[in-house]
Amino acid sequence: MSASAAAFFKILRHPFKFKLFLFQKLPAAYIAGVRVKEVDEKKCVVTVPYKWLSQNPFRSTYFACLSMAAELSTGALAMAYLYKINPPVSMLVVKVDSEYFKKATGKTYFTCEDGELFKNAIEETIATEEPTTVKARSVGKNKEGEIIAEFTITWSFKARKK
Question: Fewer C-beta within 10 Å: the chain N or C terminus?
Answer without folding.
Answer: C
